[in-house]
Design goal:
The protein is α+β, with helices and mostly antiparallel strands. It is built from four helices and 19 strands.
Length: 423
């Protein structure tokens, strides 16, 4: 009986010793470092020319000749092609003759005919005025003689008739002059001016039609398409030539709304082009103010210089746009951040007491495998980067060494104080 009790006592003691030993969890840690972090938005994009013009003729006519070919460099205003225009040239010549004739008529009307008629009316009015003055003097003289009894009444009455006739003649001449000055001159000038404007308009219209037969470049660039040959019919409204300005190229990308909200015009970036060793630098030039209704994304334009014309429109590229840069930011690996169902974020700190401590944090910029911690930790803290998922607060931990990218033990693999002494 005593022997049995002794064995039970020994067994109970051993069981008690095993229960008192706290289990340890192997984890890997990373230091909270202060460094520069960038919010980079990446997306696939297609290259487009800076400017493009599909030149369409306004008239239908055969192509007389081309002055450029596919791949030719052209300048703004340069003559590229000429359409058959002999009929248009003849029409322009005909209307020019009519315009010259109307102009001569206008000059004759304003400089000769009308002024002569006005001068004659002015002379007639002046002559009638002088005749009236003379008759008034004769009447006054005869009236004095009649009052003195030296002149019979018959001659005085005749003088009254003469002065009345002279007054009427003056009134008619004056009215004719006033009519020419007030009505005749403006109306005749207006008619001559109208004929001149009509002839000028027809001439300008014929000149415009003739100019449509000359196809000129609206921009600087290169000829990328020329579907017709000389002699073939160029149809109005159908592209005859295509000119592209590729001095700079636009990478058009469709970016999710939450990423596009961080971008603005002028943000720097780069694009990776197949066949090019180095990324090509550029900047954001357009952030669309509206969503694409089909994809619910935002179209963003990224412009890059193309001085050697090596980049080709239509190429598929990847753009990396720097939306924000923060210096001296506290950065930890993304794997160290735990997100709860309610959206709150925490990290597990490896404490100097050998325990894991849960700490609520506020996140900032994320860039690849790194994320900024705005609040909750300080520089030099150790966060559990591997093994924190599902780990209860204040669990005893053992820091395991994590191999670095070169295959050597990482600084993050240093054991936490007290981590192995308790083993």
């Amino acid at each position: 009986m005593a022997f049995a009790l002794g064995l039970l006592s020994i067994a109970t003691g051993c069981s008690s010793d095993k229960g008192d030993k706290t289990p340890q969890v192997a984890v890997q840690v990373a230091l909270v470092e202060k460094t520069t972090i960038e919010h980079t938005v990446t997306a696939q994009a297609i290259l487009f020319p800076l400017q493009q013009a599909a030149i369409v003729p306004k008239i239908t006519a055969p192509v007389q000749k081309f002055l450029v070919k596919r791949g030719s460099a052209v300048k703004e205003g340069q003559l590229l092609a000429v359409l058959e225009n002999r009929d248009l040239s003849a029409a322009a010549q005909d209307t020019k003759g009519a315009y010259d004739q109307a102009q001569a008529t206008y000059e004759t009307t304003t400089g000769a005919n009308l002024p002569e008629e006005i001068q004659k009316a002015e002379a007639d009015t002046q002559q009638a005025q002088q005749a009236l003055d003379a008759q008034e003097k004769i009447f006054q003289s005869r009236q004095q003689l009649f009052e003195q009894g030296a002149l019979p009444r018959k001659e005085l009455d005749q003088s009254r008739v003469d002065i009345t006739q002279a007054r009427n003649a003056y009134a008619i001449a004056k009215k004719h002059l006033d009519a020419l000055m007030a009505i005749g001159k403006p109306q005749e000038l207006k008619a001559a001016a109208g004929q001149l404007e009509s002839a000028k308009g027809k001439y300008m219209g014929a000149q415009a039609q003739l100019s449509y037969s000359e196809i000129r470049s609206p921009i600087n660039g290169f000829i990328t398409d020329r579907p017709l040959y000389p002699g073939e019919m160029a149809a109005a409204g159908t592209p005859l030539l295509t000119v592209m300005d590729i001095s700079s190229l636009i990478a058009k990308a469709h970016i999710p709304q939450e990423d596009a909200a961080a971008l603005k015009v002028g943000d720097p970036g780069s694009m990776t082009v197949p066949g090019f060793e180095k990324p090509i630098e550029g900047k954001v030039t357009v952030v669309s103010p509206a969503l694409d209704p089909n994809s619910t994304t935002v179209e963003v334009w990224f412009e890059a210089k193309n001085p050697k014309h090596e980049l080709k429109p239509g190429t598929s590229v990847q753009v990396s746009l720097t939306a924000k840069t923060v210096k001296d930011a506290l950065v930890v690996p993304v794997s160290a951040v735990l997100t709860a169902p309610d959206g709150t974020t925490t990290v597990m700190l490896a404490g100097s007491d050998g325990l894991a401590h849960q700490q609520a944090v506020k996140l900032g910029i994320r860039n690849g495998d790194d994320v900024q911690i705005v609040d909750g930790v300080k520089e030099g803290d150790k966060v559990i980067s591997n093994g924190a998922y599902g780990l209860p607060d204040k669990t005893k931990i053992e820091v395991a060494e994590a191999p670095s990218k070169e295959g050597k033990p990482s600084a993050e693999g240093a054991k936490a104080p007290g981590g192995s002494d308790d083993k």
